[in-house]
Amino acid sequence: MSRVRVHNLSVSLDGYATGEGQSLDAPFGHAGTRLLDWFLRTRAFRDVHGESGGETGVDDAIARAWGPGIGAEIMGRNKFGPQRGPWEDHEWTGWWGAEPPFRTPVFVLTHHPRPSLEMEGGTTFHFIDASPHEALRRAREAAGGLDVRIGGGPSTVREFLAADLIDHLHVAIVPIVLGRGVRLWDGCEGLEERFRTESVTTPGGVTHMIFSRP
Ligand SMILES: NC(=O)c1ccc[n+]([C@@H]2O[C@H](COP(=O)([O-])OP(=O)(O)OC[C@H]3O[C@@H](n4cnc5c(N)ncnc54)[C@H](OP(=O)(O)O)[C@@H]3O)[C@@H](O)[C@H]2O)c1
């Protein structure tokens, strides 16, 4: 059976995976880029976006596990964009430009489905109103035997954790305090009992925690 994986999910010391006040100009709200700075510096990030340069090292080595073996992604509607409620227009195609880095089918969970969007480079966004089990069934079907990534945001990851559908969870704990936003861990009491946990802190100060099935 293919595995369900989360990678590079960045949280602040106080447990927030995004800030407050998401808008078109601020995908992470008041957090700005602070949660992702460690990742933006890596060569892995640059590679995925077709750019040269970037740091190598432990953060890079861990970050690049994001891509291999993945055949589909599931993401929440707020990762795809800042809109809420019914779509007012269908112009918005996500934060990532004409050629998003996913290069697989991507299932966007929303209570407001809209027609699929085929992008350049192999990404197709499908907008579905589905339970975690049903979304995973569809993603697995599209993934052709490969693994399925749960791409975030925190509400969606929490939903899949609550349904006990995640096999591998990589959380990058970033040494910042956000104070407000959307928290990852709420309702996850006792999570550690379901997983083997390992962690490593890198020289940049990020603690990578891996929760994997025993
Ligand atoms: N820290 C990180 O590494 C990281 C990673 C990814 C994203 N992010 C950030 O996290 C934020 C988004 O996270 P979030 O927790 O606010 O939201 P989210 O998980 O991206 O999306 C939640 C929304 O998805 C829809 N949805 C979720 N489950 C559904 C289901 N089963 N059926 C139908 N619709 C469903 C609902 O939208 P509707 O009801 O409106 O349709 C819900 O309000 C963004 O700021 C993004 O940039 C951070």
UniProtKB/TrEMBL annotation:
<dbReference type="InterPro" id="IPR024072">
    <property type="entry name" value="DHFR-like_dom_sf"/>
</dbReference>
<feature type="domain" description="Bacterial bifunctional deaminase-reductase C-terminal">
    <location>
        <begin position="8"/>
        <end position="203"/>
    </location>
</feature>
<dbReference type="GO" id="GO:0009231">
    <property type="term" value="P:riboflavin biosynthetic process"/>
</dbReference>
<protein>
    <submittedName>
        <fullName>Dihydrofolate reductase</fullName>
    </submittedName>
</protein>
<dbReference type="Pfam" id="PF01872">
    <property type="entry name" value="RibD_C"/>
</dbReference>
<dbReference type="InterPro" id="IPR050765">
    <property type="entry name" value="Riboflavin_Biosynth_HTPR"/>
</dbReference>
<dbReference type="GO" id="GO:0008703">
    <property type="term" value="F:5-amino-6-(5-phosphoribosylamino)uracil reductase activity"/>
</dbReference>
<dbReference type="InterPro" id="IPR002734">
    <property type="entry name" value="RibDG_C"/>
</dbReference>
